[in-house]
UniProtKB/TrEMBL annotation:
It is an enzyme of class 1 (oxidoreductase). Its EC number is 1.1.1.37. The active site is at residue 187. CDD domains: MDH_chloroplast-like. Catalyzes the reversible oxidation of malate to oxaloacetate. The lineage of its organism: Bacteria, Pseudomonadati, Pseudomonadota, Gammaproteobacteria, Nevskiales. It comes from Hydrocarboniphaga effusa AP103. It catalyses: (S)-malate + NAD(+) = oxaloacetate + NADH + H(+). Substrate binds at residues 92, 98, 131, 162. Residues 5-146 form the Lactate/malate dehydrogenase N-terminal domain. The keyword Ribosomal protein does not apply. This is Malate dehydrogenase. The keyword Plastid does not apply. Belongs to the LDH/MDH superfamily. MDH type 2 family. GO terms for biological process: malate metabolic process; tricarboxylic acid cycle.
Amino acid sequence: MKKPVKVAITGAAGQIAYSLIFRVASGSMLGPDQPVILQLLDIPDSLEKLKGTVMEIDDCAFPLVSGVVATADANEAFDGTDYALLVGARPRGPGMERKDLLSANGAIFVPQGKALSDNASRDVKVLVVGNPANTNALIAASAAKKLDPKQFTAMVRLDHNRAISQLATKTGTSGNDIDKVIIWGNHSATQYPDISHTTIGGKPAKSLVSQEWIEKDFIPVVQQRGAAIIKARGLSSAASAASAAVDHMRDWALGTDGKWVSMGIPSDGSYGIAPGVVYGYPVTCKNGQYEIVQGLSVDEFSRARMTVTETELREERAAIEDLLK
Ligand code: NAX
């Protein structure tokens, strides 16, 4: 058996975590031979509820769980952390403007970025799930002075998986046959799900679906899927979000074997995107590192949509500029 690694999960008493913790504990994220120490963080008011989740973790008698910490202290939760999944965030309240939402989340992600910088493993991999995920990742990365911003990523994998599922349903194929789907930009309604380079069973996806379907159905359905789930369930996506978080971290840690996945990562200027903003890109992962898929052609249709979502991220960054010192 390998030496245990430490996995921190914030928002640990919430609904995504209620699915995520058990997937991580069962080995879905880091493999069936990798023991984990779970470091669960929530706010003081939620600790009683978190106690119940910890009781359930105990009751599963997971062979891979070597320890569980439940705390409201970020320094304790991130002590030696190898993988941090930042799920807890401040939801948008009634009448709250985007700027207020961004600042309210700044109050969470600045201290958490600092706590990671001071306490986590120097190789920590951070995934931000809590919304607005891309800009929260930017805020945390900027506050983590002793870590490399590249260690901070945001989740667009749920959107990526949703795009694969829509395409599989439309073409009567299996998601396994679908390659090279891209989510560009922000995890928001401006995201651009792009199938320009996608293949299905080796054939170009665009030869199997119409441009009209892409524009009128596929793109808006993927962009609005979160809202459709809330309408149907009365609650936001939880199990699928947890599953996407597991996919994101697993692929980053264990590699994608050449397969493309979408990750929100600090832009290095690739594809003309403003450097620094945390933008969804197509990447491959190997040896614990991600690398942007380079050299793709970008037509006018794609460029216009990539710019819309980039503009939103630049505006989000401008709204919290004072937090990025
Ligand atoms: P819940 O409201 O069920 O749980 C959130 C938990 O976070 C609560 O237990 C709360 O006490 C805790 N929390 C609040 N502030 C905290 C802090 N400073 N430190 C630690 N914990 C804190 O929300 P849930 O449904 O689990 O969603 C969590 C976040 O994921 C939300 O921001 C949501 O918008 C976001 N999502 C992101 C997705 C993505 O694809 N990136 C998709 C799903 C989801 O909408």
